[in-house]
Amino acid sequence: MSERIKKSFRYAAPLTVPVMVGYLFCGAAFGVLMKTSGFGLGWILSMSVIVFAGSLQFVGVTLLAGAVNPLYALFMAVMINVRHVFYGISMLTRYRRFRRFRPYLIFTLSDETFSVLCNMEVPDGVDEELACLWVSALDQLYWVVGSVAGALLGGAIRFPTKGLDFSLTALFVVIFVEQWMGPPKHAGVSDGLSKPEQAPGGVWEAGQKTGGATSGVGCLRRCLRALCGGWFAHENRIAALLGIASSVAAVALFGKAYFIFPAMVLISVCLAGLYRGRRA
Q1: Residue 258 CA to its chain's centroid (Å)
Q2: How far is the C-alpha of 20 from the C-alpha of 63, rounded, in Å?
């Protein structure tokens, strides 16, 4: 193993420890659920390696056990994972620079992996693409190991498994709070952009000077700075506020049973506006 690979691993591995705790436990819960539903180790391993979709895998147990129509299963998969659309928008700038492992990085972009990568500032001397690869590969490995462990132990476990998947939600909330309370991460820092106009202030000034969605970004920042003294006027916090506001609006308009798709569409439009502001 080359020194470059070792250095990227030493940097990336500690970042995945919180994800490891959640994935080993939730992966084991998935393995237990599959085993108690009558599926063997081959099914469990295949789903964790090929599907690797967290909540969709839990839903998939019911879909497989009930022999659901494939078209309905496809619709459910799209509805459950449509949030990955705005994950992809957020990662456009970083992933565009990658060549060797980009397909695998896109495939393994789960909720928690996305949070780690967004919060990651690769130091000098560390290969950014390799660091992202290690984070993504380790996260999937944790899930696969947990699933296999749950499958092997499933026959011996007798306690109720309802609610075990909530640990993923709890983990994501903790990561969100850490990102919110941590130092602001702007396009000029987190994305490795070097143009002066793409530095923290330049992004927003570009948004103020251009039309359409980016001009709205500049107006939003000015209003937040006036109201909150600049505390919210950072790109990461504005993205979080847009996500929360979009979700609340979708719940109010469409109800809890149907809010996910409209909320994701609205969030995607808002983040696309932020992305245009970066590129301006």
Answers
A1: 21
A2: 27
CA-CA distance, 36 to 34, in Å (whole number)? 6
Give me the pLDDT at residue 133, please.
Answer: 93
Q: Which segments of the chain have a pLDDT < 50?
A: 186-215, 227, 231-233
What is the C-alpha separation between 91 and 135, in angstroms, rounded? 15
User: Can you read off the two tokens belonging to residue 261?
Assistant: 């798709």
pLDDT in tens, 235-253: 567 777 877 888 899 899 9
Contacts (Cβ under 8 Å, ≥6 apart) of 246: 263, 266, 267, 270
Residue with tokens 């979708």: 250
Residue with tokens 């449509």: 82
How many Å apart are CA 204 and CA 236, to the nearest integer?
A: 13
Answer whether 232's CB lies under 8 Å from 248's CB.
Answer: no
> At what angle are helices 55-65 and 17-36 packed, to 10 degrees?
10
pLDDT at 100: 87
Amino acid at 236: N
Alpha-helical regions (H) of the chain: 3-12, 17-36, 41-46, 55-65, 70-81, 84-90, 92-96, 102-107, 111-118, 128-153, 166-181, 187-190, 200-209, 213-228, 235-254, 260-279
Indicate the DSSP class of residue 165.
T
pLDDT at 211: 43
* Amino acid identity, position 56: L
> In this predicted structure, what is the pLDDT of residue 258?
76
Query: pTM higher than 0.85 for the full model?
Result: no
